[in-house]
UniProtKB/TrEMBL annotation:
Cofactor note: Binds 2 [4Fe-4S] clusters per subunit. One cluster is coordinated with 3 cysteines and an exchangeable S-adenosyl-L-methionine.
Record GO terms (molecular function): 4 iron, 4 sulfur cluster binding; lipoate synthase activity; metal ion binding
InterPro entries in alphabetical order: Aldolase_TIM, Elp3/MiaA/NifB-like_rSAM, Lipoyl_synth, PEX11, rSAM, rSAM_sf
SMART domains xref list: Elp3
Designated name of the protein: Lipoyl synthase, mitochondrial
Protein species of origin: Mycena venus
Enzyme Commission numbers on file: 2.8.1.8
Domain Radical SAM core: 289-517
Cofactor list: [4Fe-4S] cluster
Lineage, opening ranks: Eukaryota, Fungi, Dikarya, Basidiomycota, Agaricomycotina
Keyword DNA-binding (UniProt): no
Length: 565
């Protein structure tokens, strides 16, 4: 019973609901939905002659309206700030003007609404004519803001349509593969932006009738206006829910832009960065060569986009290391299969890690693209060892099988953190148990090595980390890496603490004692950091370790091998 209760209480949906409810916007939209349902239901009861019952719902509507006004006391200043920020941007002139005007209109609406709130709680006592005038000014400002928002949406949609048309024209005229990935990324961004604009347009259209009816410009009854407002409130709440759930986009990850109302977990103050986590600026001939090849082929790497602290070490290496020893590992985002395979074959690498952002837009989560890219790499450079670092494919074991049977050498999927912190750290759709199932299924499909990664410094407890390692061994995971969680941008979780190197050493020993074939543990260790050194270090350790590596590559069971000395 306790286990069932904990599963319900700690369910990601419950955790996310708390996050949404903790924001002013989340509470306001939830209250507004109930308030307008009360408005609709009171009208329905009155139309059926049940005036006594309707009075309760009318009172509920009134009380929620007062509560919402209290919640929004600081909102006028937010809209004024938004207007000033818009004035400083370099947006197209008409879009900039409509944005500034809209924010000023909302500033006026909420400012007048503050006086209405003061009147409703008897803090101020205006004459009836004055109170009515304030109400009219508030509704006029609200209506103006909505109309400006609709005009802004129309102007922005027209611009985005023109940009998409130009990109499609370039795509048909020019066959340069190096620009193809960039064009596709721009088209996806435009499509997503247009969808967001359409969503807001529908909300504005539904909200329009509220002030219009109050000003006598529309003859819609309270029932219709109430239902319209309920729908628009739920749509706005859904948008806010998705914004918090989705977390940062790749563009946000790079730019560091942070939206308002973002929930920040972890240590609220944030510890100072210790000296052992500071790295040199990347440079060198090998680094420059890899970067030039990537740009020429239109490819992108997580190394750059996630600002990995080890990029200079991995890409630079020792003089001649990339060609002579083949010990560098690069992590390439899957964009174009042929270009990825071509780039990798040029560099003379011994080990490559392929990964991608979660492809929620694809039915198979990108599994077939993963598999085909791996096959093409093996065709062009059979000697290269390939690791695929995948998401959980929403728990679809069928898609896991597609990647696992592609001819890869290592299947990696990151558990990220301990089970108790998973709902707070990872996407709300990801679960600790699903990740274990992915790793277990990959092994059952014949993958020789499975691998995962754990971040420390998120607030995890020692017994929770130990439990995580034990669960990973139960599904026969071979390789685990430990690294320090580093906060990429201000909209991400703050670091709870910086873990000392000695603690990383301790976890390395604990994991090895549990039977993991290989453990990489250190503040700067990342899932893909010098991944190929696993094989090299096994050879350098001596005959016993070398035999272990050879047996593993020959297909022997890793659980048995881990116990050998």
């Amino acid at each position: 019973m306790a286990n069932v209760t904990s599963q319900v209480v700690l369910h990601p949906a419950v955790s996310h609901s708390i996050k949404v409810g903790a924001t002013t916007l989340g509470r306001d939209k939830a209250y507004r939905a109930v308030q307008n349902f009360a408005r609709f239901y009171a009208w329905l009861l009155i139309s059926r002659g049940k005036k006594t019952d309707a009075a309760r719902w009318t009172a509920l509507k009134s009380h929620l309206g007062t509560a919402r006004k209290l919640l929004r006391l600081g909102k006028p200043m937010e809209h004024l700030q938004a207007a000033l920020r818009a004035a400083l941007t370099s947006a197209p002139p008409l879009e900039q003007i409509t944005t500034i005007a809209r924010q000023i209109a909302y500033f006026l609406y909420l400012s007048f609404d503050t006086f209405s709130w003061a009147q409703s709680i008897k803090f101020a006592n205006f004459a009836p004519d004055t109170a009515a005038k304030i109400s009219r000014l508030a509704n006029r400002s609200w209506l103006a803001g909505i109309l400006l928002s609709i005009v802004h949406a129309a102007v922005k949609t027209a611009r985005l349509r023109r940009e998409a048309k130009l990109l499609h024209a370039e795509k048909h005229k020019e066959k340069d593969l190096s620009l193809e990935a960039e064009r596709e990324a721009k088209l996806r961004l435009i499509a997503a932006t247009r969808a967001a604009v359409r969503h807001q347009f529908i909300i504005d259209f539904l909200d329009l009738w509220n002030p219009a009816t109050s000003l006598g410009l529309s003859n819609l009854n309270d029932g219709v206006v109430g239902i319209f407002s309920v729908i628009s409130s739920l749509m706005a709440l859904e948008k806010h829910w998705d914004t918090l759930a989705a977390g940062p986009s790749l563009d946000d990850f790079i730019s560091g832009d942070a939206p308002p109302d973002r929930i920040i977990l972890g240590n609220p103050r944030g510890p100072r960065l210790p000296a052992h986590l500071k790295t040199a600026i990347p440079s060198g001939e090998s680094f420059s060569k890899i970067k030039k090849d990537l740009r020429g082929l239109g490819l992108h790497t997580v190394c750059e986009e996630a600002r990995c602290p080890n990029i200079g070490d991995c890409w630079g290496g020792k003089p001649g290391a990339t060609e002579a020893e083949g010990r560098s590992a690069a992590t390439a985002t899957i964009m174009l299969m042929e270009n990825t395979a071509e780039a990798i074959s040029r560099w003379g690498l011994g080990y490559i890690v392929l990964t991608s952002v979660d492809r929620d837009d694809l039915a198979d989560g990108g599994s077939h693209h993963f598999a085909e890219t791996i096959r093409k790499i093996k065709q062009k450079a059979p000697h290269i060892l390939v690791e695929a670092l995948t998401g959980d494919f929403w728990g679809s074991l069928k898609d896991v099988s597609v990647v696992a049977k592609s001819g890869l050498d290592v299947y990696a999927h990151n558990i990220e953190t301990v089970e108790a912190l998973t709902p707070y750290v990872r996407d709300r759709r990801a679960t600790f148990r699903t990740s274990l199932q992915v790793l277990e299924h990959a092994k059952k499909e014949g993958v020789r090595i499975t691998k995962t990664s754990i971040m420390l410094g998120l607030g995890e407890k020692e017994d929770q980390v130990l439990h995580t390692l034990e669960e990973l061994r139960k599904v026969d995971v071979d390789v685990v890496t430990f690294g320090q969680y580093m906060r990429p941008t201000k909209r991400h979780m703050k670091v709870d603490r910086y873990v000392e190197p000695a603690e990383f050493d301790n976890w390395k020993k604990v994991a090895e004692d549990l039977g993991f074939l290989y453990v990489a543990s250190g503040p700067l260790v990342r899932s893909s950091y010098k991944a190929g050194e696993f094989y090299i270090e096994n050879v350098l350790r001596g005959k016993g370790a070398e035999n272990k590596a050879k047996k593993l590559l020959a297909g022997h069971d890793s659980t048995t091998l881990a116990a050998e000395t």
